[in-house]
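Following up on my earlier thread - several people asked me to post the actual chain instead of describing it. Fair enough. Here it is, all 141 residues.
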Amino acid sequence: MYLDAAYVAKYYLNEPDSPRVRKVIQGAGALISSAWSIAEVSCVFHRYLRQGDLSAKQIQQLSREFLAHVDSELWTLVPVSAGLIRRVTSLVATLPPEVFLRAGDAVQLVSALEAGEPEVWTSDRHMLAAAPHFGLVGRSA
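Reply from S.P.:
Thanks for posting it. Predicted structure:
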């Protein structure tokens, strides 16, 4: 099961749809994401600190837990190599002009392709809309 960084973060945070995401994750065999998610999840945690929703101590604990899960390979991470970035470039060049896509989302979509996953789980509406242009099914809990 391929998850973008927002879904990975929902595993650790209490957001309105976190219980649904955790339920979907619990039924999965392998949990796959991009190595790019390490940076993105860290930034999501920091947003909670910036907004005053969690303390610095809580963010540090969440970060340690997340990185321990990365180290124990709870999350299988697709490496972000120069080749992957070149594939992003090639595929983005073929997109229709109306497709809105951020660089990080493109990295996530191509990482799902690299992992051989047919679906990508995300709550990002732009990523969900772009997924079919990459031959992927966008899923949301």
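Helices lie at 5-12, 18-26, 36-50, 56-71, 82-92, 103-114, 125-130. That should answer part of your original question.
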